[in-house]
Write a structure and sequence with these properties.
The complex is a heterotrimer of chains A (269), B (220) and C (200).
Chain A lengths: L10 H8 L3 E6 L7 E2 L2 E2 L9 E4 H9 L3 E4 L6 H14 L19 H6 L29 H11 L1 H4 L5 H24 L12 E2 L5 H35 L27
Antiparallel strand pairs in A: 1-4, 1-5, 2-3
Helix pairs in contact in A: 3-7, 7-8
Chain B lengths: L2 H8 L8 H18 L11 H20 L4 H34 L1 H4 L3 H4 L4 H21 L28 E6 L3 E5 L6 E5 L4 E5 H9 L3 E3 L1
Chain C lengths: L5 H7 L2 E6 L22 E5 H9 L11 E3 L7 H9 L6 H4 L3 H11 L3 H34 L15 H8 L3 H26 L1
Antiparallel strand pairs in C: 1-2, 1-3
Helix pairs in contact in C: 5-6, 6-8
Classes of the chains: A mainly alpha (269), B mainly alpha (220), C mainly alpha (200).
């Protein structure tokens, strides 16, 4: 049967995705390696820490077979630092996403850009291990909201070492609110002046749940602006064509794009 | 843990990602992309989907073998294996259903050219063709045949084309996987953004598509 | 434009004030004078789909005359535009047309109304921000109403937002209603998800 959902992942799907994040656990019981579709699990030998998928960690936790090590960014000190940054230092942008882990050919930056064969698949969240014990503090991973919620709900006692659950939840709530306001403002910048609507909006640092919640609305506004502006845009393209290529004439503030004209698909009505 | 595994983990120059994890990353990426893109995307290359499907099948067989075994310790392993199996099945199913939904919505469009047809897997192509034939026969027998002959077409392109197509200029969210220039057409200006890896960007799908196809960005 | 889009079809039925530029035989019934030619200069309200065709169609006349000229419909007239300039949120667009923006984009295609375009864009964005605020509020109020056993609130009716909010939402056109729905569903899905984690 077909799946007729609007474009973009739903909250439940995002939550499913977040369960693939990697976390660190301290086993309480021995468990031999298990041959899974995603590869062999590490064998568990208390008290040696290992990294594995959040869904598996939660399963072990429910069975009291392991404790989960809180990711450093969930520490109250880290969270309040981020709240501080999001409210005071940079009240208009989201704070930086975690730094990308180093890649094989990081020493040869010239080649790094070229290398795109099938040998190495580039990992992105939730496969980037930004929730393990050695992930950096002070950065919110893409799945911060879901991972925090699940850890606090299912492994609350393991998070106590960080501080009181109330304190952490309070900070998370502050963060959610300040970021929700930024999310709302992002559509205002799409041409509240009614004058200059460019083609690219960056939301660097935004989280997966935040996207799920606002996607329909934001895309609705962007698409609406495009449709209202379609005739203006068509006229502008005609003029630029006459002036000898895009960017040649009164194209406004943006830098002209240098894509070849022939491949330009007709915007139409 | 195997001594090789330990050595691999401590060796900083050996970063290779296990094949299983690569496959999971790629399937997940394909799923998210299909759930987010306004049009049907090409069927995954390099036998990715078939490989995963085969693995799922053999895992199911393994579960059946293990079910006879009542040792409580392997029993927990079984729970883990089954939980993971369900997760894979969910991914695969949701991916296929998202594709079918798009094929159903714009069947005639995706069957209209060889280029578009090549995006469908063999099974999908068979499904789309048969489903369309069934629908057409049903329409014919229930009402189309009572229309004047010149009004019986379902693919008339005079005036507004009856064959609906996805809106390729619909906006999408992408994440940059490389430092790359992002060109986006806008109403008042066309912008080139000096994008950084991990940037999350809103732009038209028609502008995002080349980046996604080149592996420089992924849909989110 | 898609063939089976109901909103597009309804938008095409909106009436546009047109003035005929030529005498047309046998069309007098459009002006309540059957069996007479329709005189040049007669003003008739025509549905958008017809007006569009007649504006674009070539009459073959030497002076390049078109069949009709058109004026902006009242929904996009000067009064409305001035009111939108003053405060986009204060104008109930739905009273002008349920397909306000759909109609407007058609008219922008037909005429080079630069100013109208920029007023509309500012209107859309400003009202969208307001819509998003209300969509969240309704979510929380809907929740309370539910717990009191009053049933979920339906948008545009018993929102319990107080006069101004309810009035604003009643005045949304179809594009805006769709935005409201999306914003509301997003906010609601977020709350539902948190609940579902707790229940697990």
């Amino acid at each position: 049967m077909a799946l007729s959902l609007p474009p973009g992942l739903t909250h439940a799907e995002v939550s499913f995705l977040a369960e693939m994040e990697t976390v660190t656990i301290v086993p309480r019981q021995r468990l031999d390696s298990i041959d899974l579709l995603s590869g062999k699990t590490p064998s568990l030998r208390p008290p040696h820490r290992v990294d594995l998928s959040l869904w598996l960690a939660l399963l072990l936790k429910k069975q009291r077979r392991a404790n989960i090590v809180p990711p450093p960014w969930l520490h109250p000190a880290s969270l309040s630092e981020i709240v501080q940054r999001e409210t005071k230092e940079n009240p208009t942008a989201f704070s930086e996403p975690p730094p990308v882990p180093s890649r094989p050919n990081i020493h040869q930056p010239g080649i790094a850009a070229r290398q795109n064969n099938n040998e190495t698949v580039q990992l992105s969240p939730p496969f980037q291990a930004s929730c393990t014990a050695d992930a950096p503090a002070g950065y919110l991973p893409y799945h911060w909201m879901e991972v925090a919620e699940m850890l606090l709900t299912f492994a609350g006692d393991d998070m106590i070492s960080l501080g009181s659950a109330g304190e952490i939840r309070g900070l998370l709530r502050d963060l959610t609110e300040v970021r929700a306001a930024k999310m709302r403002d992002s559509t205002k910048t799409l041409g509240a002046d009614g004058e200059n609507v460019g083609g690219v909006v960056s939301l660097r640092g935004v989280g997966a749940m935040e996207l799920a919640e606002n996607r329909g609305f934001i895309l609705g506004v962007v698409d609406g602006m495009r449709r209202i502006g379609a005739s203006v845009e068509a006229t502008r393209r005609e003029q630029e064509e006459e002036m000898g290529g895009p960017g040649g004439g009164g194209g406004g503030g943006g830098r002209g794009d240098d894509g070849d004209d022939d491949s330009d698909e007709d915007m139409g009505i | 843990m195997d001594i090789d595994d330990i050595l691999r983990e401590v060796d900083p120059t050996f970063h290779s990602i296990p094949k299983e994890k690569q496959d999971l990353q790629e399937l997940t990426r394909a799923w998210i992309a299909e759930r987010s893109a306004p049009e049907l995307l090409p069927w995954p290359p390099n036998g990715l989907f078939e490989r995963i499907n085969d693995n799922i099948k053999s895992q199911i067989e393994k579960v059946e073998e293990m079910t006879g075994d009542m040792d409580p310790r392997t029993n927990f392993a079984l729970i883990v294996i089954q939980t993971e199996l369900e997760r894979y099945k969910y991914l695969v199913r949701s991916y296929l259903r998202a594709r079918i939904a798009k094929i159903d919505k714009h069947t005639l469009h995706y069957l209209s050219t060889d280029n578009l047809r090549s995006r469908l897997s063999e099974m999908e192509l068979a499904y789309a063709t048969r489903h369309q034939a069934l629908l057409h026969n049903h329409y014919l027998s229930s009402f189309l045949s009572s229309f004047p002959p010149q009004l019986q077409n379902l693919n008339d392109a005079a005036g507004i084309n009856m064959v609906e197509t996805p809106d390729l200029d619909a906006a999408v969210f992408i994440r940059l996987l490389k430092d790359v220039f992002v060109e986006g057409r806008g109403v008042d200006s066309d912008v080139t953004m000096d994008g950084r890896e991990s940037d999350i960007v809103i732009l038209r799908w028609s502008d995002a598509k080349p980046l996604v196809e080149a592996g420089q960005a992924e849909l989110v | 434009m898609s063939y089976y889009d109901i909103d597009a079809i309804l938008t095409d039925a909106e009436k546009i004030p047109c003035t005929f530029q030529l005498d047309i035989p046998d069309l007098g019934y459009l002006d309540n004078t059957p069996s007479q030619p329709l005189k040049a200069g007669t003003k008739v309200n025509l549905p958008l789909w017809l007006a569009e065709m007649l504006v674009i169609a070539n009459t073959g006349a030497a002076d390049n005359k078109t069949f009709v000229t058109f004026d902006l419909p009242r929904a996009l007239g000067n009064d409305v535009v001035q009111a939108l300039k003053a405060d986009p949120r204060a104008v109930p667009l739905r009273d002008q047309s349920a397909h306000f923006y759909g109609l407007a984009t058609h008219m922008l295609d037909l005429s080079e109304e630069q100013e109208l375009g920029s007023v509309l864009r500012k209107t859309f964005v400003t009202r969208a921000a307001e819509i998003s605020l209300h969509a969240r509020k309704v979510g929380s109020i809907g929740h309370k109403a539910k717990s009191k056993g009053e049933g979920a609130s339906e948008m545009g009716s018993n929102l319990g937002l107080g006069g101004a909010g309810e009035e604003f939402l009643r005045g949304l056109d179809e594009w805006e209603r769709s935005l409201f729905r999306k914003a509301h569903e997003g906010a609601k899905a977020g709350k539902d998800w948190i609940e579902s984690v707790k229940k697990n």
